[in-house]
Amino acid sequence: MRCTIPGTWKVALLLGAAVTMVLTSCVHRSPFVEEQYFQAMGAPGEIVVTVDTRAPEKLPGSFSVQDSSFATLLSRIDRLSVSLYDPSGLAESDGVVQADELATYEYYGGAEGNIPAFLTNSMLLWDDAWEKIEEGKIRYYRNEWLGLDVYAPKNGLLLFASDNYMKAYETTYKNRTTRIPTALADRMAKSLFGFYVGSPKAIMEIGLAIPQSVLAQTDSMVLVIEEQEQKGMTLGGIVTMKS
Fold this sequence. Notes:
Blueprint: H1 7-20, E1 46-52, H2 68-74, E2 77-85, E3 106-113, H3 117-125, E4 131-135, E5 138-143, E6 148-154, E7 157-161, H4 165-174, H5 182-189, E8 193-197, H6 212-215, E9 218-228, E10 232-241
Antiparallel strand pairs: 1-2, 1-8, 2-3, 3-7, 4-5, 5-6, 6-7, 8-9, 9-10
Helix pairs in contact: 1-2, 1-3
């Protein structure tokens, strides 16, 4: 039986040793320049969340960072993006996903930032807590206690998954296809927090009191938390209806 730990903390634990390494004079950045990494997420039935971690103290509520050591870990990551999905496939049926149902969801995603691929993967290789897994020519590392698969395929990017690393690798890196329109993705990338659903079957009940009859006609929904000079933190959104 594996221990359930919030995904953000799992990634932080993974990067812990890398933070203490002295061979970090070379600064790495995300390899995704022309488009956003998370644009390849958002298949029907998935819920996409992306967080700008460069200023975690600005994030509201439970996203704020109180622990100084954890803040140091996050300082190496510019953006954390996660896609939640129902492995049973039940999210494909009509209806609204209730918040308590997310406990049964699996996830995959990526951390972008100052992540040295060679050092990170070497750390995992020599750590007994991580088991090396090979699927054909693809290698990654699994920690059964954390319930986490990870690997850094390139400088600036760390892929992770709770159950299926190959889903993260194929979907968002090797054979990626952009799903989230550029205009919406750019709006999410400029915000502190972005939330995207590309199918009414994946709409989560988040207290906005939107009638289900309206959700059924929704093609996509984007919610963002933005910082505005005059108003401070504001909640914005874009709802695209089916044509």
